[in-house]
Amino acid sequence: MHRLSDDIRQWADALGFDELGIARPALAEDEAHLLRWLQDGRHGTMRWMGRHGVKRARPERLVPGTVRVISVRMDYRPPDLEADDQILADGRRAFIARYALGRDYHKLMRKRLQRLAERIEATVGAFGYRVFVDSGPVLEKALGRNAGLGWIGKNTLLLNRHAGSYFFLGELFTDLPLPEDRPVTEDLCGSCRACIDICPTRAITGPRQLDARRCISYLTIEHEGSIPEDLRPAIGNRVFGCDDCQAVCPWNRYAQPTDEADFHPRHGLETASLVALFDWDETTFLRRTEGSAIRRLGHARWLRNLAVALGNGPADPQAITALKARLGHPHPLVREHVVWALERLQPGGAAQSR
Fold this sequence. Notes:
4-stranded antiparallel β-sheet; two-stranded parallel ribbon; 17 helices; elongated; epoxyqueuosine reductase activity; cobalamin; QueG; 4Fe4S_Fe_S_CS; metal-binding
């Protein structure tokens, strides 16, 4: 098993994974934390979070026979990107979370984990396994911590002392009794609270305490309905996700840029203006988000997010014209946020324009 473990690490490296660790599926403390979080309703409208009960924290219940979890990580931040704060300071531009600028990572990582499993199978024969890449009820950060890939920081993300937090995670549940890696038990955040202090909506209510209902990533990606009006101004020009708590983290000085071409920006999303993106019709949206995590929003929620961002920006004639053109949009979600944005840019003007 020790020799096999060494081989698995070499195969994972050849497949483009940046690090691999192995852990026993023991998550009792994490299960208690999850249940408290769900009971407090901090998951918002993500009802699927509670749908699987304790399976999320008990891999052996999710995949019977599981005795080890192989966790992998893959860096995703593209090289040579403009600093986040420069984009956020320009109310005419769109900020998109760095992970979503390129192709969707799910298929890429899932295929490579499957290839890793097949390489193991070619060596040891048939064995029990299942691949996960954000595709099931899995506590991936806790498993990554137990596998030695990092510690869970105050922003609730997995932090790695050599790579920061700009990386994806994937798992291979297996019945092979591989030797375990040493978990990261130190809290290397120390007294730092930069992520807590910078959160625009105060979604990080304390160390490792996240209220998803206030989180910009939740509001712009997971939430399907109207964005609460009191939170809209704090969203600024963030139209898909938010990286503030990562960008400010001192450990991300060590984040490594990815050389994975699929994670590099596509369709100029890293430099796009809000008006240009708001002008996309549904056909254009579907074409330019093909293979992208952004497509899961659908066109209506994409316009919802952009309308909020335009309403938070300068009252440019181009922005006002673009918003007015959407006042008759067939989806009430879009119309509501367009009206709000116009009222911000020209008080009283939205009602007169309808």
